[in-house]
Amino acid sequence: MIDYDARVQSLALLHVTKAQVLGLSFKNSAMMHVAIGMSVGVRISNLKITAPAESPNTDGIHVERSRHVIISDCQISTAEGIHVSDSTIVRTDNGVRIKTWQGATGFARDISFRNISLTEVRNPIIIDQFYCPRGGCKNETSAVQVSDVKFIGVKGTSANDMAIRLECSQSSGCHDVVMEDVDIRNAVPGEQAQAFCFNAHGKKAKVVKPDVPCLSY
Ligand SMILES: *[C@@H]1O[C@H](CO)[C@@H](O)[C@H](O)[C@H]1NC(C)=O
Ligand SMILES: *[C@@H]1O[C@H](CO)[C@@H](O)[C@H](O)[C@H]1NC(C)=O
């Protein structure tokens, strides 16, 4: 939630109609770096946000109770302790996603997604450590180490048959992935939803649908 003492954010846009923010850099903000709240029609582009692990807060751009917000061409380097909750995601490409490049270093850990509602999302739950938007990537021996990732109460419908994909690096894999109370159905009635794992390890609890075979009860 946004702290309405606007001084604690590096940049806060609250109750704004039609605004454009471009070409700024932020480093180690005391709170969220950029917060947008109760606003309509905001365009954010070409921001560079850097928050190393010791930074007090790693929210890059936080959007709350706003409409028509377009964020593009931003570089957000934040690390661990990312918690997403109480969100509704409708007809997007990705629902809850972690993606990393091959050959990168560092880690992505202590990340949680709770109480997320999805409607006809193409990739409802996805960890993609083979991210390669322009093609031509090789498999490398190093990878970002992904661990301690929780999906709790993630429910809704998938626009693709493959509802859950955990594709972790061949070198380090993903560890301590937890799924609990996850229920994703195929948006097409009567069609099954499926899950796929590569080198992912962890636990599941309560309902996990479709079943994710690489996680154990
Ligand atoms: C779950 O998130 C929705 C918003 O998508 C919110 O309205 C609801 O109160 C949340 N439920 C719980 C139990 O926190
Ligand atoms: C990288 O490794 C994965 C997993 O073994 C494999 O599916 C993929 O085809 C490989 N990609 C390349 C470009 O070799």
Characterise this structure:
- This protein has strands at residues 11-14, 17-22, 25-27, 34-37, 40-45, 48-50, 61-64, 67-72, 75-77, 82-90, 94-101, 107-121, 123-131, 145-158, 162-167, 174-186, 194-198, 200-209, 215-216.
- The chain is 0% helix and 60% strand.
- It has a 6-stranded parallel beta sheet, with no helix packed on it. It has a 4-stranded parallel beta sheet with strand order 11-13-15-17, with no helix packed on it. A 3-stranded parallel beta sheet has the order 1-4-7, with no helix packed on it.
- The chain is mainly beta and 217 residues long.
- It has 2 domains: 1-75, no CATH class; 82-217, no CATH class.
- The radius of gyration is 18 Å and the shape is globular.
- It is built from no helices and 19 strands.
- The two termini are 33 Å apart.
- Bound molecules: 2-acetamido-2-deoxy-beta-D-glucopyranose (NAG) (2 copies).
- One 2-acetamido-2-deoxy-beta-D-glucopyranose binds at residues 138-139, 170, 198.
Strand content: over 45%
Computed over alpha carbons, the radius of gyration is 18 Å
The helix/strand series, from N terminus to C terminus, equals EEEEEEEEEEEEEEEEEEE
Regions with little confidence, pLDDT below 50 for 5+ residues: none
Helix percentage range: under 10%
Describe the main β-sheet briefly: 6 strands, parallel
Task: Quickly give the structural class.
Answer: mainly beta
Per the principal axes of the C-alpha atoms, what is the gross shape? globular
Number of DSSP strands?
A: 19
List the ligand species: 2-acetamido-2-deoxy-beta-D-glucopyranose
Count of discrete domains: 2
Q: Could you tell me the mean pLDDT? A: 88
Keywords: Cell wall, Cell wall biogenesis/degradation, Glycosidase, Hydrolase, Secreted
Organism: Zingiber officinale (Ginger)
Family: Belongs to the glycosyl hydrolase 28 family.
GO molecular function, one term: polygalacturonase activity
